[in-house]
Amino acid sequence: MVMTAERVLTSLRKGLVEFCVLAILKDGSTYGFEMARRLEADGLIAGESTLYPLLARLLANGLAESEWLESEAGRPRKYYTLTAEGREALDLFEQSWVPLRNAVDRTLGGRHD
Amino acid sequence: MTEYLLPPDANAWLDAVERALSNVRLPQRAEILDGLRAHIVEALERGDTVDVVLSRLGSPTEIANHAAQEELGTPPKSAAPLRYFTRVQLAGFELAIVAASAVAFLPGYVQNTVDSHGRITSTTTSIALFSMDPKVAVTLVVAILLTAVPLLVRGQAWRPVTFSVAVLMAVLAAVTTLWIVGWFIVPAAVLSVIAAWLPARTRRRSASATDPARV
């Protein structure tokens, strides 16, 4: 298997993106288009459509919920909201992620010394 | 959801996505299509052209691949694996059939034809099937039927039936060893007893895709 920057990135994104989505929802309800554009702009998803299968799984697992609400655009939008289970999952992720990120940073930093 | 008229290209693209997602469970498929439809509406309202919107969303196949990665597909309809005690019972049933076949096709008797001088002119050998003692035949049929019963019973009755069959098979084998035939059904009886003693627990399923802690 040839290791490319894209393959490394894809591998790293896997498992992280769902928590980035939960983190976005922690700040308040939002709709798909806005989330997709934000995640893509931040390089967290490879394409906008990636988001919707992921959202479908989060909804199926009870980590998020959705409802149609009237928007300022004058038509209903589908808004996604974090559930209590989603908040709990995000908390667990943050507890694991910070030490892991620090450990990786230390390891990579040490290698450059 | 409020109906919003989409351009024909967008509708055709959504139809293609729906076909590509045919393996995805219905609620999740509807959720994905709903999200994509709302996304297209939003992008078009913001001034993007249909071509740009669809090209940013990618191909239906890519979306189906993402859905597969999220493990949203319907589980394959494979037959449930046989539990290990069922395998033992099945082996017991097969051994009962083998025993019956072995006894039935053993040489039963030899008939010699002699001439007026007492010389053997021809010899005919018959299999035991045609001269079988009714007691032996009944024993073998009962053994086959008994070992088949636990394979046909489901639910709460399974455990008592399995114990009863094990006891009956053990008694049948013990009693019929007097007629030799019992030795043939001993292996099936032993497996019936083993199956009755095995704990009836099923294999625990591996963690499913719905585990919220999955990272």
Jot down its keywords.
heterodimer; A: 113 residues; alpha+beta; Arc Repressor Mutant, subunit A; three-stranded antiparallel β-sheet; 5 helices; 60% helix; B: 215 residues; mainly alpha; 2 domains; two-stranded antiparallel sheet; 8 helices; 59% helix; disordered C terminus
What does this entry look like structurally?
The complex is a heterodimer of chains A (113) and B (215). With 113 residues, chain A is an alpha+beta fold. Chain A has a single domain, classed as Arc Repressor Mutant, subunit A (Orthogonal Bundle). Helices cover 60% and strands 14% of the residues of chain A. Chain A is built from five helices and three strands, in the order H-H-E-H-H-E-E-H. In chain A, strands 1-3-2 form a three-stranded antiparallel beta sheet. The longest helix of chain A has 29 residues, at 84-112. The radius of gyration of chain A is 16 Å and the shape is globular. With 215 residues, chain B is mostly helical. Chain B has two domains: 10-69, no CATH class; 84-197, no CATH class. Helix content of chain B is 59%, strand content 7%. Chain B has eight helices and two strands. A two-stranded antiparallel ribbon of chain B has the order 1-2. In chain B, helix 6 packs antiparallel against helix 7, helix 6 (134-152) runs parallel beside helix 8 and helix 7 (158-176) runs antiparallel to helix 8. The longest helix of chain B is centred in the middle third of the chain and has 21 residues, at 84-104. Chain B is elongated.
Question: Can you tell me the CATH class of chain A?
Answer: Mainly Alpha
Strand order in the sheet with the most strands of chain B: 1-2
Radius of gyration of chain A, taken over Cα atoms and rounded to an integer in Å: 16 Å
- CATH architecture of chain A, by name, is Orthogonal Bundle
Poorly predicted ranges of chain B? 201-215
What is the subunit arrangement here?
A: heterodimer
Overall mean pLDDT of chain B: 79
